[in-house]
Amino acid sequence: MRKADPPGRDVLRRAVGGQRRDVAVGAVLGMGHQTGEALVPVLIGLAIERGVVDGDAGALVRWLVVLAVVYVGLSYSFRFAARAGERASVTAAHRLRIQLVDRVLAPEGGAAEGRLPGELANTATEDAKRVGAVTMALVVAISASTGLAVGAVVLLRMSVPLGLLVLLGTPLLLWLGHLLSKPLERRSETEQERAAQASGVAADLVAGLRVLKGIGAESAAVARYRRISQDSLTATLRAARAEAWQNGVVTMLTGAFLALVALVGGRLAARGDISLGELVSAVALALFLIGPLSEFSWVNAELAQGRASAARIADVLRAGHAVTQGPGTLSRVEGRLRLRGLSYGSLRGVDLDVSPGETVGVVSVDPADASALLHCLARHADPDEGAVELDGTELTELGLAELRAALLVAEHDADLFEGTLRENVMAAAGPRAPVEAAITSSGTDEVVGTLPEGADTVVTARGRSLSGGQRQRVALARALAADAPVLVLHEPATAVDAVTEVRMADGLKELRRGRTTVLVTNSPALLAVTDRVVLLDRGSVVAADTHERLVHQHVVYRTAVLA
User: Quick check: 230 pLDDT over 50?
Assistant: First the structure.
C-alpha cells in the first residue's frame, strides 16, 4: 500500500512547481556564484605558486587578472541569483494567499468553520510567507551543493585523502542537520498555532470593543488575551530555543569538520605531498566551505518551518465544503419560495409557501429558530430533512452564484467595509439598481445628511465610524440596492428609534412592492407592513395570519412582538 503523503507536502510541491522558472534561474546563477567562490582559493594558490614561489611576475599579473574577472562574475551571479530566488519566494507566498482567500470566500463555505478571522489572517500571511521561503531555500541548497562539489573536486585533484574527507564528511553533516531540524519543525508548528490563536482573539476583542466597554468586561477580556498571548510567547521562545540549539550544534560540528580538513592538509604539506600554493588553496577552501555548510543549516531550518506552515495551509485548503454546487439554472425568477418539511438545527418539519410578490413576516420565539432558517435560506447549510424550493426547484439543485443573485439573505450582523458610504451601498448593485431609492427608503439619506462629505464620506473598516443605527440603515440600503427577486431580511432595525423604524418599514414596503420579501423579525413596525406573518415556536409553525389578528388573538405572538 502506498504511504500517504505528509500533510502539506502537496502545498510545498505546488508552491515550488509554480515558480519552477525562477527557481531554475536562481539555482543556475547560484551555481555560477558558488563555483566562482570555490575557484577563488585555487586562483590565489596558483598566483602564489607561479608568481611568488617561481618568481614569474607576468604569471602573477595574469592570474590576478583572471582572479578579478572571476570576482566580477561571481558578484553579478550572486546579485541576480538572489533576485530570482526572492522573486520566487514572494510570488509563491502571494499565490498561496490568493488560494487561501479563494477557499475561505468560496460560495460552498466550510473553510472558516472553527477558525477565528485573525487565525485565518495569520495563516494567509505568516504561514504563506514561510512556505514561499522554501523556494529561496532550494536555490540556496542547490548553490551550496555546487560549492561543496567543486570544492571536493579541487581537493581531490590536490590530494585524494582531502577530497575523500570532504565527500564523505559533508553528507554526514547534512544528515545530522536534518535530524536536528525535527524538533524545530514540531515546535514551529506549535508556535504558528499559538500565534494564530493570539491574532484571532485580538481581532475578536477589537471587533467587540464597544460591547466589552458597555458591559464592563474589559478586565476579563484583557486577562483572556494575556493568557493566550503568554502561550504564544512560550511557544515562540521554545521554537527560538530549538532553532538556536540546532544552529549552535551544527556550527560546532561544521567547525570541527573544517578543523579536521585543515589539520589533514597541513600534515600533507609538511610531508611534501602538496605544494605551498596547494596548501594555501586547501586552507582557503576549508574556510570557504564554512559558507555552504552554514547555508545548509539555514536551509534545514527554513524547510522545517516551511513544512510546519504548509501543513497548516493544507488544513484550510482541504477543509470540507459546507454545501455543494448544484447543476441547475433558473431561466427566469418569479419569486415563489417554498419550504417543505424543513428540519435543521432547532427547526422541525417547517412548511411555508411565499407567493411571488408577497411580503411575509417570520416571528420566532427562540432566536435559534431564526438562525437555523436563515442558514438554510442562504444555503450556508443544507436541511437535515425536507427542502427549500425557489420557483419549484430545490436550492440544492442550483448553482450557488446564481442562487444568491436570485435569493439574497441579508443577516442582522452584516458588516460594512472600508470605503465610502456610497461604495458600501453599491457593493452588490447592478448597473440599473435603484441606489438612490434604496438610500431614501432605508433612511440612509438622514445618515448622509449628517456626514461631512455626504455619501462620499469614507467609512472605516466594519463601519466602526458610524453608530449602530447608522450601520443598520446603510446595510439595509445595500440589501435593497441589490434589487434581488427574493430578499430575506433579518432584524434590519433593532438599533434605530421608533420613528426611524416606521419610516424604514414604509420605505421597504414601497420599494419592494411586487417583489418577494421575507422579514425575519419581531419588530411590530416592520410586521405591520407585511401581507401576513407566520409564528415559529419550538421549531414549528404554530400560527399564520395578519399581524393585527395575531396580536389580538395569539398570546404567544403578542408576547414575542410586544413584550
Answer: yes
**Contact residues for 464 (Cβ-Cβ < 8 A; gap 6+):** none
User: Is the pLDDT reported for residue 534 higher than 50?
Assistant: yes
| DSSP string for 110-173 | -TTTT--HHHHHHIIIIIHHHHHHHHHHHHHHHHHHHHHHHHHHHHHHH-HHHHHHHHHHHHHH
Return the C-alpha torsion angle 239, 143, 99, 326, nearest 10. Answer: -120
Cα(229)–Cα(236) distance, integer angstroms: 10
State how far the Cα of 64 lies from the Cα of 273, in Å rounded to an integer. Answer: 26
pLDDT tens, 418-441? 899 999 999 888 778 889 999 999
- Joined together, the cell numbers standing for residue 407 give 435569493
DSSP track, 436-498 = HHHHHHTTHHHHHHHSTTGGGSEEPGGGTTS-HHHHHHHHHHHHHHT--SEEEEESTTTTS-H
Asked if 313 contacts 100 with a C-beta cutoff of 8 angstroms, the reply is: yes
Instruction: Report the pLDDT value the prediction gives residue 191, as an integer from 0 to 100.
Output: 59
Q: Residue with C-alpha cell 577563488?
A: 40
3-class DSSP state of 366 = coil
Mean pLDDT over 301-330 rounds to 88
Instruction: State the cell numbers at 517.
Output: 420579501
Give the integer Cα–Cα distance in Å for 306 and 127: 8
DSSP states of 190-239 as a string?
HHHHHHHHHHHHHHHHHHTHHHHHHTT-HHHHHHHHHHHHHHHHHHHHHH
Does 538 score more than 70 pLDDT? Answer: yes
C-alpha closest to that of 344 among 390, 299, 298, 375 = 375
What backbone torsions phi and psi does residue 273 show, to the nearest 5 degrees?
-75, -25
Q: For residue 259, what is the enclosing H or E element? A: helix 218-270
Coil, strand or helix at 408? strand
3-state class of 89 per DSSP?
helix
Distance CA(561)–CA(498), nearest Å, equals 14
Q: What is the pLDDT of residue 447?
A: 94
d(CA 558, CA 451): 39
pLDDT tens-digit series, residues 107-164: 888 888 877 777 788 888 889 999 999 999 999 999 999 988 888 788 777 778 777 7
Closest Cα partner for 301 from 196, 445, 184, 463?
A: 184
493 φ/ψ angles, rounded to the nearest 5 degrees: -140, 30
Please check whether residue 38 is in contact with residue 157, taking contact to mean a CB–CB distance below 8 angstroms: no
Cell numbers given for 116:
477565528
d(CA 188, CA 310): 11
Q: What percent of the chain has pLDDT over 70?
A: 84
Cβ contact 481:431 at 8 Å: no
3-state DSSP helix/strand/coil percent for the chain, to nearest 5? Answer: 65, 10, 25
